[in-house]
Amino acid sequence: MLKKVLIIMCLLAFFTSCGFSIKKNDIKTIVQNLGLGECPICDIEKLYSNPHEAAQLLIKELHAIEVTNERSDEMINKNPASFHVIWCVRGLQFLTGQRFFGDTKETNSYRIQQFQQTLNPLPFYRDWMSREYIMIAPHDVQIQIINKWKEFIKQNPKFTVKKYSFNDDLYF
Q: What total number of domains does the chain contain?
């Protein structure tokens, strides 16, 4: 619930500051700090000022992160670098409308069964919003998805930009 309230507050802050202009160098700074500030959704909205460059930079930020399941507020405090990567994936999903998935060779542990509950193949991460819980895919899935993003941008450098308002479909 707290997460949704914060997102609404971010959106309100964004819409009351319309008319901003983003310099090219600012895009790089926004990407490098995505997910670490007060309003990641607002930062993603700013990336629309130069979405193709932003997507290139977001992909450069992607790397495999620690496989974990924890509350999002704990993750941002304990492992902000992982939280940043998750927001870079979200940013790419918002800008491109694309979602990529991968298969794992990991055995059916309880964690994987819980992660696959509704999704198979697996996404990079999965949010369990009612519990403010983030589940991170196994490393083999993360690597597959990162490679798919690299291939996507290589084949579609001028992809069709998707303009999304906040949408739960892109959150999961």
A: 1
